[in-house]
Each structure stands twice: as C-alpha cells, then as structure tokens.
Amino acid sequence: MPFKEVDVSEVYRNDPSLKSEDVKSLKEWAEKQPHLPKMSELQTAIFLSSCYYSNELAKITIDNFFTVKTLCPDIFGDRCPQNPAVQTSMNTLLVSILPKLTPEGYSVIFFKMMDPNPDAYSFPLGIRCFDMAAMLHLHKNGPTKGMIILMDMEGVVFGHLLKLSIVVMKKFMYYLQEAMPIRLQSMEFFNIVPFMDKILALMKPFMKKELLNSLYLHQDLAALCKRIPKDILPQDYGGSCEALEILREKYKGLMHDNADFFKQEEVQVVDESRRPGKPKNVGDVFGMEGTFKKLEVD
C-alpha cells in the first residue's frame, strides 16, 4: 500500500518549540548542498527536533546521517522487507516501538531475541531492522520527545557474542550518537547475561560519556521496573501492552505494509563526487578498519 506519512502541520501543532521558519531555513541550506539528497519538510523537521532546535547541529547531523547510510550499505542498504535476509532478521529479533509512552513522554523501542539459535542472527541486519523500525515510526508519527532503547537479554547466548563485530559496533555507535535523528535518553538492558562484561567491552570504547552515563543494566524485571513502569511493557512481563508474539506479527506486518517508504529511503544517498571539498570515505568517518583486531573471547 502507498506510504502515508504524518502531516507536517500536525508536527508543528504538537511541538510549539519547532518553528516552521527554522525548518524551512534548514531545508534551504540542505538544497544548496550539492552532495546531499532531496529532503522533505517533515524529514527536515525530524532532524531539527532531534537536535533540540539547533540549526547548526542539525546541519552536521544531516550530513552524518546520509554519509553513514551511503558508506555502510552492509548495515543500512537493501531495506526491502521482502529481502529473505531481512525477513530472517525480523523472525529472529523483535524490534517494536511500544504503544505507551513513559511518564516523561518518551518512546520505548523494545528488543527481544525470539529465536535463541545464534546461526539465525546477524548483527548488521539487526541494526538495519532497528533503524528501519525507528525511521518508519518517526515518519508516521513525527518526532518524539525522547527515545529509550530497551532490550530483554533472555534468549541471548554466548554464540550471539561471537556474531558481533568490533568494526560494525563502531559504525553503529557512531550512527547512534552522531547521525540518527532521535533524542536518545537511555539504553536499558534487563535479564542480563553472565558474559555482559564482554559485550560492554566491545561497546564502551565507542560510547561518549553522555551515553555511558545513560546506560543501565538490570539483573531482572523487578530491577527494570524501578525505572520503567511495568504497565507499558508487553503482557509477558505483566504489562498492558500486547504479547510478544502479537507484537512480532504486527512489527512484520508494519514493515511489509510500508515497503514504499523503505524504497524511498534507499535512494537518499550522498553523491561524494559533488561534495564541496574532499570526498569522504569509510576511513575518513570511522578510522582505518585495519587497525581493529578481531574480537577475542576467553
């Protein structure tokens, strides 16, 4: 079915601090950058909102966003929901924006390993599906006051750790902190696994102090509910949200129903041959990949 995005006038009504003249000024700037793709007013508004209305910060974020998407097709490319690899990822890892907001008005993007077999899991595809779900939500509902990343680690086994890549982790952490148009409030993990220290050792070198300070590890559900109200969680955890299996089917249906949106996203790439000054490559953005050793696990 044709993709229907939220009306940008509704976005302005919901956030009086977001001024249409500021969005239009930012959009005019973007149109003068020969290497950037064409952006809609809604898309520009999402970036400006995520940067707390700072025009200058939004310019940097926009350039980072499209540059990372272009330079990392292994992570962000081929966003077709009918792609068998994407379908496998959607069956393996649930990615769902929970319907209820936190008391602070934040959206929660929830992760859960639905298939414990590590052979079915792909780290880059998991990131791709997370990004697809988040970007679709922003374009269908408008910018959020803030976003919390929440993961239930039950079902995560040591074999999943072996599927992680330090190079992909660095790219993901850069994207999350420097390019993705969300106001990330915290990352919360519960039912943490005995090898969580090894996962953190892979993540922490690429996390800024602000993100490190908003990283929370919860031994179990009871500990999590001291920060996240149980009511907003799925029924499986005693909450009022739909059960995990229903959320998974809705998530898959939502992705398939909005294939036109993902097709449109794929053509929004940077033309490095037209970038003012020196074109950028992977090494310019992320450093030399060859300097990273493979993750060694004791």
From TrEMBL:
SUPFAM superfamilies: CRAL/TRIO domain (SSF52087), CRAL/TRIO N-terminal domain (SSF46938). Residues 140-245 form the CRAL-TRIO domain. InterPro entries: CRAL-TRIO_dom, CRAL-TRIO_dom_sf, CRAL/TRIO_N_dom_sf. Gene3D superfamilies: CRAL-TRIO lipid binding domain. This is CRAL-TRIO domain-containing protein. It comes from Molorchus minor.
